[in-house]
């Protein structure tokens, strides 16, 4: 880098604060938000969590299949731990699965 490429920027503390704020906002906007997984989910959230459609969960409830659920009036809720347990119970092993039980 030669001396012609160097420059000195003079800014007041307030101007510097605004510049930094704008840079931080731009960086935060560029980062995709991480979805928070709640301990209790509604039907739509639960379906997304296990990779199904809400209609599939409704059908499973009608046929007494699928993960455990809770009802409050007409609203249906799923606990994350119940979804995780249900998914783990359906896990199948292959000969290539590194942690398969012998």
Description:
The structure is a single chain. The chain has about 100 residues and is mainly alpha-helical. It has a domain at about 40-90. Helix content is about 45%, strand content about 10%. The protein is built from four helices and three strands. The protein has helices at about 15-30, 45-50, 55-60, 80-90, and strands at about 40, 70, 75-80. The protein has a three-stranded antiparallel sheet. Strand 2 (about 70) and strand 3 form a beta hairpin. The longest helix has 18 residues, at about 15-30. The mean pLDDT is about 85.
Q: Give the helices and strands as they follow along the chain.
A: HEHHEEH
User: Which oligomeric form is depicted?
Assistant: single chain
- The number of strands is 3
User: Which term fits the overall shape?
Assistant: elongated
The helix-and-strand class reads mainly alpha
**Residue runs with pLDDT of under 50 for 5 or more positions:** none
Report the average pLDDT across residues: 85
* Spatial arrangement of strands, main beta sheet: 1-3-2
Any idea what the radius of gyration is?
A: 26 Å
